[in-house]
Amino acid sequence: MFKGLGGLGDMTKMMKAAQEMQGKMAQLQEEMENITVEGRAGAGLVTVTATAKGELTGLSIDPSIFQAEEKEVAEDLILAAVKDALAQATARAQAEMAKITEGLGLPPDFKMPF
After folding, report:
1. CB of 93 closer than 8 Å to CB of 36
2. How far apart are CA 82 and CA 113, in angstroms?
3. Which end of the chain is more exposed for a tag (fewer CB within 10 A), N or C?
4. Alpha-carbon span 112 to 114, nearest angstrom
5. pLDDT for the residue 1
6. Exposed e or buried b per residue across 26-44, where buried means at least 16 C-beta atoms within 10 angstroms of its C-beta
């Protein structure tokens, strides 16, 4: 009876897989708010904490860097730690995303549009 429908069964499977992925993506978005990473600079003199979504949540600065003549060094360390934390957040988010998309047969370097 359904022989003339060709690849419609494959389309149904694909739609079901897309719906499952959408649910997993929504769950991952929630989980990424709870995954934290730390960026460090100056051998740990400055530490920045961020969520995997890239939201900065904490900053720790060793008091030894607060010397007036080393203001630029302190600023550079803070900026480096922030950049490190955001880079780690992006990497962690991509790793979590890869776990979801690996079953879809997408290329490993495929970037989702969201």
Report:
1. no
2. 25
3. N
4. 6
5. 47
6. eebeeebeebbbbbbbbee
